[in-house]
Amino acid sequence: MNKQLFQQKIKAFGWHLLFSAVSALLSILLVYGVWYPSPLAKAVGVNHLYLMMLAIDAILGPVLTFIVYKKPKKTLRFDLAVILSVQLLALGYGLYTMYQGKPAWIAYDVDRFQLVRTNDIDQRKLAQAKSEYKHVPVGRPKYVASVVPKTNIELSNEILFDEIQYGIAPPQRPELYQPLSRAYEQIVKRAKPLNELNKFNDENDVKKILSQYPTADSFVPLKANAQDMTVLIDKKSGGKVVKIVDLRPWQ
User: Fold this and answer.
1) Nearest-CA neighbor of 65 among 114, 102, 13?
2) Residue 222 in contact with residue 195, Cβ under 8 Å?
């Protein structure tokens, strides 16, 4: 390989790497800034998989460009177009997969919140859901209350059967969703004192995190599929959510 061709390859590699870096940055902003706001990426357990996918996609494209780049080559434009198309398709598929697994609802149920991902939702019940809960939030997850009607024995039995037989918990059933305000009284009643967090976390970590949220006076556990988190609550405001934080709510 002569020096001029090598320099051309390096230049093409550099431009493609820049394009890949910009694409990766926009992807990161979308995934971590909108779909998986901290600390929900850790709660769902997507960090390792997503970053590995992103690194492969961002590096492989420029490397292939370096390999095929040869300016007099007749099929150069076609080759580069194919590489770019495959890279964009791979990125698009990765983002689609991330969207399918993103937190959709943070549903309060009895004495805890449960993180409900897009692909956790019981699709059979969407038709029975209120209009505002028929569609997954495009951006950040939203808070809801999962309310099982106490007077409807038949529905209660169906919910119990589905949970035992199919593992479908009430928070995964959109027809049970109500505004979170419906659960404020229950949240205030069930919320735990903050000093209990010291049992399951390093005291210095607890102190450092709580100092950032002075209005928080209690907490409710958040059940997630990879790592359970803590939802800080302000009882004085009637049970409103302050913040989800990276602390263990139980052993």
Assistant:
1) 13
2) no
C-alpha distances out from residue 219 to 114, 161, 189, 199, 203, Å? 14, 30, 11, 14, 16
Q: Is the pLDDT of residue 216 over 90?
A: yes
Strands 142-146 and 103-109: parallel
Backbone angles phi, psi at 230, to 5 degrees: -120, 130
**73 and 184 Cβ atoms separated by less than 8 Å:** no
Torsional class of 230: left (φ above 0), alpha (ψ -120 to 50), beta (otherwise) = beta
| Residue 225 DSSP class | S
Q: Are 116 and 172 in contact (CB under 8 A)?
A: yes
pLDDT of residue 151: 82
pLDDT of residue 48: 87
Longest dimension (CA), the chain: 82
The β-bridge partners of 105 are 116, 142
In residues, how long is the chain? 251
Look up residue 17 and give its two tokens.
């790497």
**Cα dihedral sign, 232-235-236-237:** positive
- Whether residue 121 contacts residue 136, with contact meaning beta carbons closer than 8 Å, is answered with yes
For residue 22 the two structure tokens come to 């910009």
CA-based nearest residue to 109, from 200, 223, 217: 223
Please, are residues 216 and 192 in contact by the beta-carbon 8 Å criterion? no
